[in-house]
Sequence to fold (88 residues):
Amino acid sequence: MIHSTLTSKNQTTVPKAVVEALKIKPSDQLVYEIGTDGRVVLSAKTETFASVAAGLPKKPKPKPVLTIEDMDRAIKEVAVKRYSRSLS
Fold:
């Protein structure tokens, strides 16, 4: 059994074994669930969806899809510009 002492300011130190079991670190939040029988269950607050999502790799932006017509139009535009320059 693990013990800790409550101070006059209602504070306590979380024992090392509990810290390791919950895998918590400074600034993590703890959740206390009080049962009808007076037992208290202590657990670490799980991460929010936003914090989990922030750690995921970003989805790359899709590259624009060019149609054959788009490519033909671009080729024609470049050809016209080059032809116009050759006349100068």
